Amino acid sequence: MSSTAKKAICILSGGMDSTLASYIAKNDGYEIIAVHFNYGQRTEQRELKAFRDICNDLGILEKYEIDIPFFTQIGASALTDSSIDVPTEGVKPGVPITYVPFRNGIFLSITAAIAEKEEATAMYIGVVQEDSSGYPDCTDEFIQDMTKAINQGTKEETKIEIKTPLVHLSKAQIVQEALKLDVPLEHTWSCYKEQNEACGVCDSCRLRLNGFKEAGSSDPIPYKAI
């Protein structure tokens, strides 16, 4: 693309949601710059592989792999503290122990710095409000407030829109949309626990598998237990 092409920074974890959001960004006509965060999560290496595979699929040339070591110092989440077990008995009411404190706020802040440097006008994030695990940093209201803060705290000529194309979709709708756009779902990774075969029982696996089931399709990644 030419240097005058509109640019978007896509926060790409390597999961199904962020991958679909990145494909939507491409369909929206943006030149994509991808950003991935290694933050001490249990499946850090597997997510990084997924990120790199998807960047290849999308032909993304410019990407950032950002290390955030302090989440393991903070702990408080089963994703970043190995002494806390990842729950496997299904989604329960309230904010689950897999919630990483203010993770999306920190991701968006770092991405905003990249967006300002790259003169991007959009940031895509695959947050899902209605079918998530109840994370407070996945809501419309939070994203609107972050957008305001980011534009308030950057240069006057910097105008950034945070795009959340999946925020009101169910997991089944996400699967359907991904299939429609030929998203390589076999390259995505959602499991909170395992890096070779997905566990099939953590909240993320359950939501993903249920989405495929409701969409009348089968998940192409390997599972230990279904």
UniProtKB/TrEMBL annotation:
<dbReference type="GO" id="GO:0005524">
    <property type="term" value="F:ATP binding"/>
</dbReference>
<feature type="binding site">
    <location>
        <position position="191"/>
    </location>
    <ligand>
        <name>Zn(2+)</name>
    </ligand>
</feature>
<keyword id="KW-0479">Metal-binding</keyword>
<dbReference type="GO" id="GO:0016879">
    <property type="term" value="F:ligase activity, forming carbon-nitrogen bonds"/>
</dbReference>
<dbReference type="GO" id="GO:0008270">
    <property type="term" value="F:zinc ion binding"/>
</dbReference>
<keyword id="KW-0862">Zinc</keyword>
<feature type="binding site">
    <location>
        <begin position="12"/>
        <end position="22"/>
    </location>
    <ligand>
        <name>ATP</name>
    </ligand>
</feature>
<protein>
    <recommendedName>
        <fullName>7-cyano-7-deazaguanine synthase</fullName>
        <ecNumber>6.3.4.20</ecNumber>
    </recommendedName>
</protein>
<keyword id="KW-0671">Queuosine biosynthesis</keyword>
<keyword id="KW-0067">ATP-binding</keyword>
<dbReference type="GO" id="GO:0008616">
    <property type="term" value="P:tRNA queuosine(34) biosynthetic process"/>
</dbReference>
<feature type="binding site">
    <location>
        <position position="199"/>
    </location>
    <ligand>
        <name>Zn(2+)</name>
    </ligand>
</feature>
<feature type="binding site">
    <location>
        <position position="202"/>
    </location>
    <ligand>
        <name>Zn(2+)</name>
    </ligand>
</feature>
<comment type="function">
    <text>Catalyzes the ATP-dependent conversion of 7-carboxy-7-deazaguanine (CDG) to 7-cyano-7-deazaguanine (preQ(0)).</text>
</comment>
<comment type="similarity">
    <text>Belongs to the QueC family.</text>
</comment>
<dbReference type="InterPro" id="IPR014729">
    <property type="entry name" value="Rossmann-like_a/b/a_fold"/>
</dbReference>
<dbReference type="Pfam" id="PF06508">
    <property type="entry name" value="QueC"/>
</dbReference>
<keyword id="KW-0547">Nucleotide-binding</keyword>
<feature type="binding site">
    <location>
        <position position="205"/>
    </location>
    <ligand>
        <name>Zn(2+)</name>
    </ligand>
</feature>
<dbReference type="InterPro" id="IPR018317">
    <property type="entry name" value="QueC"/>
</dbReference>
<keyword id="KW-0436">Ligase</keyword>
<comment type="pathway">
    <text>Purine metabolism; 7-cyano-7-deazaguanine biosynthesis.</text>
</comment>
